[in-house]
TrEMBL record:
InterPro entries: DUF6933 (IPR053864), MM3350-like_sf (IPR024047), Plasmid_pRiA4b_Orf3-like (IPR012912). This is TnpR protein. Residues 2-158 form the DUF6933 domain. It holds the Pfam family DUF6933. Residues 176-371 form the Plasmid pRiA4b Orf3-like domain. It comes from the Bacteria.
Length: 382
């Protein structure tokens, strides 16, 4: 594997560049060393498809074993893309020994610098507890780039095509979880059944749920993870209270300001950034997603099945029923009032309420439309 480095990176590595021409550009990368949040950050860009791999917070010990660190970074990002582990290991094997050279020419340097500029945009998503930034790598690999006369594409799409050509078969294989998500509204039956890769972060799951229920992501959200222990009935007024009586063991919050307030419940509170479903599933099988703390939409999530050989790297909705309320309708009471008005064309508020509902995203549940939104989310971010 050829790593073509800027002079700054070569100096830090204390390596003398070799003269080496990689015949297969899929095994060739350009590398630059930049500083983000005052930490040494390396940005790797594949020469064939411009796929991006990011390492963050590199220390002297990491540079001393850099061959191993680079290969592991590429391995972990590809696995996080849900690419079959056998294919990933075959890629690493055929890439061979890591060798270091100088940057090739201005074209490749320009592509590398463009990737670095994209990574700068996502520095707030970088995790402090690991050098291997798989999430930011995936996000940075989904920016649009020109492809000669073929219009625009993304480095991730091109990498997936190149790996399929490399092995001659479909490349995706991962563990996934089948979830039934029920929006808790009295006298209404509103639910979705989703299949989600188990390495999905809770931030990503939030986006999937937004698409599945037609929410517009106007408000804050949080997740509760439930254990098997029952909770005291006096806990009924707490936001984590489960209708099935189970006690929450973890509260995943989406806003760090939540930590500024006293935590009187005793439930462990964790910032959701970077937390994956696999850290709690399948050990725990009951969750709750709360969206919009004003209208307080509670979505009960039940783990129904673990799938070992899922053949996609994104979530899909496989079933569902019922229309979710429009944004800012005023909770359950407001939703019932909204439905009453739009069911009567003679109501003087009918036309205004229909227009308002449409503006707020209210529409009939359409599984194809939901899956288009979910797919679009994965293509644009991950």
């Amino acid at each position: 594997m050829l790593i073509q480095c800027t002079k700054k990176l070569l100096d830090v590595l204390e390596r003398k560049p070799v003269t080496y021409e990689e015949e297969n550009l899929l095994f060739s990368w350009h590398a630059n060393l930049i500083t983000l949040n005052r930490r040494k950050t390396m940005v790797l860009v594949n020469d064939k498809n411009r796929y991006v791999v990011v390492l963050y917070g590199l220390k002297a010990k990491d540079f001393r074993r850099f061959d191993e660190v680079i290969l592991n970074a590429i391995r972990l990002v590809l696995l996080d893309e849900c690419i079959d582990e056998e294919i990933v290991e075959e890629y690493i094997r055929q890439a061979g020994k890591v060798v270091y050279g100088k940057t090739k020419n201005s074209i490749y340097v320009g592509k590398m610098n463009a990737a670095c500029n994209v990574v700068y945009l996502y520095e707030d998503l970088l995790l402090d507890n690991t050098v291997y930034q798989t999430f930011v790598s995936k996000v940075a690999s989904r920016y649009w780039v020109g492809k000669q006369e073929e219009g625009y594409t993304s480095p991730s799409k091109e990498m997936f095509k190149d790996l399929e050509d490399f092995v001659g078969r479909p490349i995706f294989k991962c563990r996934a979880v089948e979830l039934k998500v029920t929006l808790e509204i009295e006298n209404h039956n509103i639910w979705r059944r989703l299949v989600v890769p188990i390495n999905t972060t809770f931030t990503q799951l939030h986006k999937v749920l937004q698409a599945a229920f037609g929410w517009q992501d106007y408000h804050l959200h949080e997740f509760f993870i439930y254990g098997n222990e029952r909770q005291d009935v006096s806990f009924i007024n707490h936001p984590s209270y489960s209708k099935d009586g189970y006690k929450a063991i973890v509260n995943l919050v989406s806003d760090e300001e939540a930590f500024d307030y006293p935590n009187e419940s005793g439930i462990e509170m964790i910032f959701e950034k970077g937390i994956k479903l696999s850290e709690y599933i399948p050990q725990y099988k009951r969750l709750m997603y709360v969206y919009d703390f004003g209208d307080n939409w509670q979505h009960y999530i039940e783990v129904q099945k673990i799938i070992d050989n899922y053949d996609k790297n994104y979530a899909v909705c496989i079933d569902g029923e019922g229309n979710a309320p429009p944004e800012d309708v005023g909770g359950e009471y407001g939703y019932d009032e909204f439905l009453e008005i739009i069911s009567d064309k003679n109501n003087p508020e009918y036309e205004n309420m229909m227009a308002w509902g449409e503006n707020q995203g209210y529409k009939e549940f359409d599984i194809e439309e939901v899956n288009k939104k979910i797919s679009s989310f994965y293509e644009l971010s991950c």
